Amino acid sequence: MTTVITHTGEMNQVHQEMAAEKTAAPKETCGLPFVTAPRMTARDVSVSYEGGAKSAIRNINLDIGEKQVLAMIGPSGCGKSTFLRCLNRMNDTVPGCEVKGEILLDGHNIYAKEQEIVELRSQVGMVFQRPNPFPKSIYDNVAYGPRIHGLVDGKDELDGVIEESLRRAGLWAEVADRLDQPATGLSGGQQQRLCIARTIAIAPEVILMDEPCSALDPIATGIIEELISELKENFSIVMVTHSMSQAKRVSDRTAYFHLGDLVEVNETARVFEDPEHKLTRDYIGGRFG
Ligand SMILES: Nc1ncnc2c1ncn2[C@@H]1O[C@H](COP(=O)(O)OP(=O)(O)OP(=O)(O)O)[C@@H](O)[C@H]1O
């Protein structure tokens, strides 16, 4: 009797281990995590919260290509936003958050002691999930960055930067005659484009976007997606999205995260049409998430 129970227990364990092996994240990320001439590189990046008690992402190795859109997808809580926030040191402000590993921007370590945070944020801009315009005029929202970073010399130059930024964000025609009006009077989609204009006004190299369309209706979403495709002509973009169709439409590369591991990254078409890892296949096939 005892033998049978033990044997059954052993068989169960073997089956569990086999099942775990099939679904476990690979020791190395599948696909092509590295690109030639990357703008940013992440090597062995691990992040924990609560003073190390809670691991959020483990040993992430990933390149951000120049003038490309990288989409990060995966089930809720898998660490997409945590990784995104590492790229401009937003996690520095979270008490008990520890970031390990190395992240380089144009070959410079952004976690080096001498790195100025204000300078980094001007090189790596961020657009948040919910449009967050300042309670100021449309003009002053866009003028804020160039003013504090001392990027412009005089009113004429500032006016030029503001018009150019609003044009590139596809908003100029809608707001040109009311630049002195409060930004909070704009629609949600317009506010998000204003936040994008505010970000590009400081001429960053990389733009991080954390689910930039999740608070928008389908029409505003379409406008922002078109804008992202245009912006990549000048910027590198890293975007977290819960929408696989959005990742397919706008990104060049897609990274799939699962429970803190970067399981697979590759050209977007490859990830969606012929993923290497079972976890990626299951997620894009809608089997979990
Ligand atoms: N400030 C924090 N303190 C403690 N734990 C955190 C904190 N922020 C995130 N976490 C945890 O880290 C893990 C990764 O979270 P993260 O927000 O990066 O995931 P995500 O993939 O972006 O999720 P979602 O798609 O739901 O936004 C989760 O377990 C989350 O609970």
TrEMBL record:
Q: What is this protein called?
A: Phosphate import ATP-binding protein PstB
Q: Which domain of life is it from?
A: Bacteria
State which Enzyme Commission number(s) the record gives: 3.6.3.27
User: Keyword Nucleotide-binding: yes or no?
Assistant: yes
Q: Which UniProt keywords apply?
A: ATP-binding, Hydrolase, Nucleotide-binding, Phosphate transport, Transport
Looking up CDD domains in the UniProt record yields: ABC_PstB_phosphate_transporter (cd03260)
Q: Which PANTHER family match?
A: ABC TRANSPORTER I FAMILY MEMBER 17 (PTHR43423:SF1)
Q: Which PROSITE patterns match?
A: ABC_TRANSPORTER_1 (PS00211), ABC_TRANSPORTER_2 (PS50893)
GO BP terms in the entry = phosphate ion transmembrane transport
Q: Which GO terms describe its cellular component?
A: membrane
SMART domains reported in the protein's UniProt record: AAA
EC main class here is hydrolase
**What Gene3D superfamilies does the record tag this protein with?**
P-loop containing nucleotide triphosphate hydrolases (3.40.50.300)
| Species of origin | Grimontia celer
Ranges for domain ABC transporter:
42-284
A single GO molecular-function term is:
ATP binding
Matching InterPro entries? AAA+_ATPase, ABC_transporter-like_ATP-bd, ABC_transporter-like_CS, P-loop_NTPase, PstB-like
